[in-house]
Design brief:
- The protein folds into two domains: 29-60 and 171-317 and 386-502, Outer membrane efflux proteins (OEP), CATH 1.20.1600; 72-113 and 118-163 and 333-369, no CATH class.
- 57% of the residues lie in helices and 22% in strands.
- The protein has helices at residues 10-22, 34-44, 46-68, 166-232, 238-273, 296-306, 308-328, 376-442, 448-483, and strands at residues 29-32, 72-89, 94-113, 118-135, 142-161, 280-283, 334-347, 357-359, 362-368, 485-486, 491-492.
- The two termini are 37 Å apart.
- The model is unreliable at 1-27 (pLDDT under 50).
Amino acid sequence: MKPFVKQFHVRKAAWVVVLFCLALPSPAQQSLTLEKAQSIAEVNSPSMQLSLLNLERYQNNLEAQRAALKSKFSLSVNPVDYSNTRRFDTFNSKWYTNETFNSNGTFRIEQPILATDGTISLINRFGWQSSKVIRPGVSEDVVDLNERFTNNLYVNLSQPLFTYNRLKLQLKELELSYENANISYAMQRLNLERNVTQYFYSVYMAQMNLTIAREELANTQKSYEIIKNKVDAGLAASEELYQAELNLSQANSTVQNRQVSFENAKDDLKMYLGMDLFEDILVIADVEAQPVPVDLQKAIDNGLQYRMELRQREIDLETSQFDMIRTKAQNEFNGTMNLAFGIIGDNEKLLDIFNQTTSNPQAQISFNIPIFDWGERKARIKAQEASMKSQEINLDEQKKQIIIDIRQVYRNLQNQVNQIEIARQSERNAQLTYEINLERYENGDLTGMDLNLYQTQLSNQKISYAQALINYKIELLNMKIQSLYDFEKDQPIIPIELYKNDK
């Protein structure tokens, strides 16, 4: 690499000082550095706010799923259940009246079993029942009345058989979704840094263009006064004054155009940062750049190790594998096992409800046996296999693209080094040329039109030099984003450091 010049030459340094002295912020104007703009954007930028909301959504979903794996306590109460019906007794061939009144409640503790996808429950049903039966008798109706307290306490196990663990799969999917959202947020932060930098330097260049245009106007005004004095003294032709007036009008027009571009660029920056659009800002930037040694192989190795897009492709592949598990579970042979064991007690007196209890073991096993599905399951599995193959190809292609992107940025950096040196020399030559020709113009050896061309050439070279420095800074930032390695600080950027929960 060719060495950079650490400072502008004396004339340019003086010009920069004049620039910022003339543009000192008013009380209602906010001075904005690149670092300050980055901080404002991370808090106020609409794109960051949307990314944070998306991350919060996945985080809450994951927390809800983890909470669902803990014991659940519930109580259901049925305080009144009354009925009075007329029924027919087929055994005795008689009609009778049945009046019942129930009041009961159920307390339940359920604990999902993550390891087996089963559920174990402790259930207690307690109630009071009154049943009155009125049957026709020989001489009068017979009334049977029964009032008792009942309690049914039992443990129940429900366990799926011969199928995949849905609890584990759902939890893993939510964990991957949350990780993916964190990755997206981290990538958004890097993109935000790049976009803010581009918007910021766009304002800086517009601000610089305006300052240069004003400098051109001042020089043109000076040239106009010189030629006007000469024409008044009869030392120059009137045509020179007409040309000077035209140059002065064009310089005024250029200032107005640059002012419009400057205001538009500030609005774009404030919009992206999420700032108040009616707040005036002044950007302050140091565009000087020092050569930063970049190791291409280190950049590629670090990019392949830490680039978050690769992890996203891996998550896509894992998600496809989960979809394959679900696909294979369609029309599959599976079963369900339910086991329960407990005791039932009843008595007319509440305190004697457990004096005589009855155990109530229950066992149930059921199977779903598919017979023929016309090839549906087989076709769906093949379709999912094709999807998984696509994800594998995407992962390989992403690795290749990362290598290509890093190589391109590296080549651009090398080219920008040369462009800066060329722009620096061109700006210096344009400055010397303008000073020489300004002296010729004052001596009457050069027309106003020719001097205006040299003035324009000098302004363009100043802008080109500043733009070359900015382009180098942006490409260096691109290398940082592409390789996740900060060559200015000579340290890698660990993706987890960019995550919200680790900020």
